[in-house]
Every structure is written in structure tokens, then in C-alpha cells.
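Hey, resending since the last one bounced:
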Amino acid sequence: MAAKMTYAEAGVDIDAGNALVDRIKPAAARTWRSGVSDGLGGFGALFDLRDAGFADPILVAATDGVGTKLRIAIDTGDVSGVGQDLVAMCVNDLICQGAEPLFFLDYFATGKLSVDHAASVVEGIAAACEASGCALIGGETAEMPGMYPPGDFDLAGFAVGAMERGGGLPSGIRDGDLLLGLPSSGVHSNGYSLVRRIVETTNLGWDAPCPFGDGSLAANLLEPTRLYVRPALAALRTGGLRGLAHITGGGLTENLPRVLPDGLGAEISFDTWTLPGVFNWLRQTGGVEEHEMLKTFNCGIGMIAIVEPARVSHVTEAFEDEGITPIQIGQVTSRDGIHYTGSL
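The C-alpha cells again:
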């Protein structure tokens, strides 16, 4: 007679998954906003665009992950910030289209589910959603024994936003428009394969004192990606914002051209801001050349706002009221390409 087998013996604990859902419900409930029609637990999540205040909406969707920054979080056990990284990578993209983020779903995959570990990640996701005015209305926890080494996990995020028809970005960008750089909080969530390789050459442990800041090396490198949603929405309401570029993979060099019309380029002056310590350290320790820095990292500028010159003071004030001090780093030009002046 064949032995009696169970799903739990095969490595999947349904009860642990249910316990996680119960654990994160209060955090998800705090993200409620107008438009949410149901809570967690159903087969699908409902959202009412009319109740959210839209008359003739266009939906905008984005998906992303955290990348190999997760490796540092896993190896150090500090997973508290990766939830914000996940949300920021998605909602910061949505706002570049002129869309208000409405709701978010997450995918958490691991070999063996630890309720405490997963709850810390999802609670970070919920906090970032709340800070972005975005409801956490669903997700998936996948326990897949044999697919991930012990302690490893992966994350993916899915955000949906909306804008009124005709209200999208970029719009009306022209020669002479000003570029406002919005400071980053650090490396954000791109370039970590190079970051990790540079750290390996130093023989520094993750718990070593940080060479470029207070605390440990890991704590500085795990600083969560900055959320730009509320400041960007405030700037959009001024009527002077013509475009936004999220500086992610590809850095300044490749992301700004994504929002510029054909025939236009930009000039950026490195003399307008100071390269943050983490980037100086990476450049010097890894012998990273300037063009590689600009294609890999945000170099201290996490988002660029393209602004009508006559309304730059209004846009600047809107950002400042939301806690971000923008830096005028250059302008749009009639010459194709991104051209840099000064010294990085």
C-alpha cells in the first residue's frame, strides 16, 4: 500500500500562507482609498474608477522588481526596505506618464515560507503604497520548494494608475524648457550587480563600517528607493510640468531621451549638484569611468522634471512643499542627444 502523502510533507504549508494573509490584512487596510471595492481574500480585486473621481480615464500599468539588491537584503537579513523599493520602481514609472497610481499587487515567491520574514516585506510594501496614495488590493505568495535555496525569495510588483484622457505626459516639450533634478535617496534599485562586484573586490563585509557614510555598508546600500508620487502630482497640478523621466536602468544618459520628442536633446551641467558619497566611492573603488557611471547609476538624480520656464517657480514651490528641493541641472536644446558639461 502506498504511503499517504500530504502537500505539507512536499514542502508547501497552506496554513502558513493563510497566517500570512491574516497578518498583513491590517497593513493592507491602511492603504484603502476611494475606488477600492473589496478587501484581500477574493479571487480577484475590484476597483471602481468612477468612485475614484475619474470621468474619462485612461489606464496606465507598470511592473517591475527589485533586482539583485535583494541579494544584499537576503544575505544580511535586512528585508525591511525592499518593499518600498518594489513599490517605488512601479509607481515612479506611472507618474512619468502623468498617471495617478491607484492600486498595487505584489508577487512574493520563496522555497519555504517564513510568515515573519514575508510579513516584514509585505508590510514595507503596504507602507510605501500608503505613502503613494495607492491601495494594496491583492497579491500572490508562492511557496515553491526546490525552486529557491533556503532563505531566498523574489519579488515582483504590478501597479495600475489612471489619468483623464488628454492629460498624459510628456506633453508640449520644447527647446528652452528647464530640467529640474529631483535628488535620489541613494543607488535606488538599479546597478546592484556592479555594486556587489565592486564590494567583492574590497573584502569588506556587509556589516563593515560604511566608507562613505554613517552605519554599516549594507545599511547605506539598502537605503530604499525614493517615492516621487506625491511631489510629482503636486507639480503636475501647477500646469507647468511638461515631462518626467525616472532615472532607472540606463541612468541619465538613456532615460531622459525616452521623454524627449524627436529633434530635441538636452544639456546637463555636472556643476549644478554634488555627486553623493556612495557614487564617488563606487566610481573610485571600482575604477568606473564617467560614461559607465552615467549609463548605470542615477548619480544622485532620481527623477528629472521638464518644466515650462515661465512656471518654474511654481513647480519648484510645489516640489518643496512636498519635501523635495529640486536642482536646476540644465535645459532642453534643439541639438539631438544628451550633452554634459563640467565635471561629474
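The radius of gyration is 21 Å.

Sorry for the duplicate.
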